[in-house]
Amino acid sequence: MLGVAIAACGRPVAQVVHPPAPNLTTAIVGASLWDGTGRASVANAVTLVQGDRILCAGGTGECPIPRGARVIDANGRYLIPGLIDSHVHLLFLSNGSAGEELALDLRDLLAQGVTTVRDMGGNPAELLPRVHTMTAAPRVYAMQLVAGRRFFFNGLRGVATARGTIYRQPPALTMQRMGWAPMLYTPGTDPDSLVTEARNAGATGLKLYAQLDSTSVHRLVAAARRAGMSVWGHAWVQPASVLEQSVGGQDGVVHAAGLAGELYNAEDRERLVNDGDLQAATALVGTVGSAHDPRVLAALDSMAHRGTFFEPTLDATRHSVDHYNAQSRRRPSVQEEYVRAASSFGMEVTREAVARGVRISAGSDHVAYGLGRDRATLFGELQLLVDSIALSPTAALLAATRDAAAAIGGENGARIGTIETGRYADLVLLSKNPLENIANLEAVEWVMLGGRVWRPGQLRSGIALR
Ligand SMILES: [Zn+2]
Q1: How far, in Å, is the centroid of ligand 1 from the Cα of 67?
Q2: CATH architecture of the region 83-413
Q3: What average pLDDT does this structure show over 240-257?
Q4: Ligand 1 mean position, distance from CA 69 (Å)
Q5: Across residues 109-125, what is the average pLDDT?
Q6: What separation in Å is there between the alpha carbon of 442 and the centre of ligand 1?
Q7: Of the candidates 254, 269, 259, which has an alpha carbon nearest to the alpha carbon of residue 344?
Q8: Local confidence band at 162 (pLDDT 50, 70, 90 cut-offs)
Q9: Residues lying with their CB under 5 A of ligand 1, a single-atom ion
Q10: Domain segments of the chain: what residues?
């Protein structure tokens, strides 16, 4: 294409402007390649990218560099798949707006090497159109929240406090005020219609949230399967336990601390409606010792046997513990007791899960709003998986690449997570080896998303983003 630029002296100067060539091949040469498939790193690798896809990736001689290819020298550096955070919450509406925070947060995630996120159930119909207008953002897949009747209609409930009785609103209303949109499922609901509605909202799966029994779990899973969608759930969904969720065919459960539900019977689980009830119940039974209770272990064994994924979300709990540790004046509260129990119990449950062969997906429960220091990150989650759960850096990285892609599932999951021919060219080049030390994930030189290279400084400063 010919363009005309005006020189400083005012004389028009013909200038050749090259449009991006979709078929131009880029060759990333000389890196140590860890492709996320489970095979060992390949030294001095060649990775060919054409358009938005990987054309070839391998050792010397495996991928001949085509003539005219653009060559990126990656000698002495480390190439890994773009990271996947399979548990985030991006949308938080304040007066109907997500403001600038969402765009800034997504750029920052990309700068950290996170090229895909899965939103675990805010409001796909609101979120996805906002994301699609952004120039620099990871791929976003979104789940639809589903909950039972009592979540919506448990009515105002009086709670006695020192200042008199206060009335709690239905939990669904609190969520809706943040801009989230849980869907109601009752025994009279046609599960196929609910799944269609979720799909029309842009969701790739359902996230079961609360007040659903095991029959509801079975029906929703069957309907989602018919539509090719995944089903995940909060651990637990009251009254359905994690064991029932796993037996019901769910693809995954989230939050290690939620295994505390296994320590209650179905009637008790159903009685817990408000956040305070759930927190108090977890605080009462969640200890290092109870993580080894046969009922918890039975749920984990079922998950391992059926391939049910597990997202422990350890970093989110760690942030909550830090919050209470930083307080200068201590006032006893149910929330603090809950957070401390959730931390020790959840950590021990995760150790048991790993020992028993449960598949782990690295979801952080990152939120895109509020104070930056309070936000869980994938980086933090991976560090905890290595430092506290004793996963090797390789195993932790698999939980954020190949296995997180499988957790997302379907056609979307089949295009991401590994560096293989035909997958999206979502790559991270690091100056230090993350397999030696997981903290080296911070040494990002550049991130490639669908064939386009971004540098962290460029993303964080906002340069050339329009
Ligand atoms: Zn969450």
Answers
A1: 48
A2: Alpha-Beta Barrel (3.20)
A3: 97
A4: 43
A5: 95
A6: 24
A7: 259
A8: low
A9: 120, 365
A10: 2-81+418-461, 83-413
